[in-house]
Amino acid sequence: MASSSPVRHAWRVLLGLLLVTGVLFGINSLGVYVFKVGDNEPASSWSPELALDLQGGTQIVLSAEREDGAAPSAEQLDQAAAIIRQRVDASGVAEADITTEGGQNIVVQIPGKADAETQERIKSSAQLEFRPVLFTTAASTEFVGDDGNATPYPSPDPSLNATPTAEPTDASDPSWVTDKLFAEFQAYDCANPATNPAREPQDQPVIACDEQGTAKFLLGPTELTGTAITDATAGRDPKSGAWLVQLTMNGEGGDAFGKVSTRLNQNRIDGLSPRDQFAFVLDGNVVSAPRMNGVILDGRPSISGSFTQESATTLADQLKFGALPLSFVVQSSDTVSATLGTQQLQIGLIAGLIGLALVAIYSLIVYRALGSVIIASIAVMAVLTYVIICILAWRLGFRLSLAGVAGLIVSIGFTADSFIVYFERIRDELRDGKSITSAVEDGWGRAKRTIYISKSINILAAVVLYILADATVKGFAFTLGLTTLIDVFIFVIFTHPVMQLLARTKFFGGGHKLSGLDPEALGAVYRSRSQFREVASTTTGRGAKNARARGEADRRQTIAERKRAEALAGDKPGRADSSNNGAKEGDA
What we know:
The protein is an alpha+beta fold.
């Protein structure tokens, strides 16, 4: 019964793998056959989407124009390019290319065909709005005014005031929240903005999320726009030394902000949380939602909180250039060819196939039939990686570039490393005289710790590279990290269960010479804790190999015998003394 438990466990795990594979294929099937986008096109595909360098795409040249007719500054263009990049490639894996050109143009290159909706999203100017917070799922840790020491507090349950009792009297009035709007707020999914309701006009309340997608906000109508801000800088508080963001508003904006601050500060005094907050909404996302700590009439508010220099500078840039006084005119929209072309893709695929072939040949030579487990594991990993990449192309806009292909090729070697570590641990256990079934279990226990540590380092390197690297390298880091995670998954849910089953077959469990688990060929030196065996020697055929095995056996036997002798001497001192005394008495 003891030996059947691992078998049942192995079959359950393999059935779980089959279920996971079926679910992944089912998800992608929904994208191919059910969900549609654009001109009734399938949302997903059974082939990975390719990036600009391998497929080509659409190039859109935008000409930036200021409202006053002056040429835009370099800072304004850079900020506009950053906003457009966020719109078309927020995850950084869509392989879009956004650059500035000639001091007035922004060039946007997108893989594939850009539909009308995408072009409209690209050319629309950024909008920065000041909206009061009606309800939110997060507590604020940022403050506007001189007192930055107020204690943050959570928002109340918005359902308490979900039904309006009268017409709204101001932008912070909870009467804006109807039952329908509150239901939409509860159902709003920050992780999937494409399924959410369209943005409302400025004179209506809206639902928005923060940039990280972790908090939801129900906001009142717009009271100010970004054009009210003339400057925003990051600096230190002269009293506390903490980083803050200092705003400067024009005359009209300062007057309007004075009225807003008066109302929100009164809400703070009355304890009307979170109606003492207002949100800076940039391109539909809340970049900051500070609480009001005083009445500000001079048009020079400052935002304090747990800022670092970097975060304060980022917020200052967002507020300064968020509402760019720019409009964009599409100068041209053309189809561009692949920068590398299909030939480079073919070369990359050939390199990958050569790598797979070399790994397979090496595995079969070194591990004999055991190498088939490596080949099967890599095949399962390839299937899962392929379908996951197809799903990511649908859900995240992932595009496979030549750098991404390189990451997939490199992962082949990393994957083979896991199996080699595991198999060598099993062989070590066999050399120590354990049965094959015991060697598989004990080798697993020793190998998995090593593999988890090494894979953690690989994932950490991929994450750091993805965060810090240029956009052209993100694809490499992304595929490398993805395949490393899949590698660990396959190692746990496929390789080990398969080895548990094979160890109980006659061919592998019996230590056949072609199995790769022959104890005699590996130099096993004893059959039990106290019974040693000789390794047969011969002068023909396998003489050199048997000689090496014999040397290994002799070394291990010498060490083991010495340890056993020391243990026996230490365990039975009384018996030795009694025997000696008896001998002496007999002699006398």
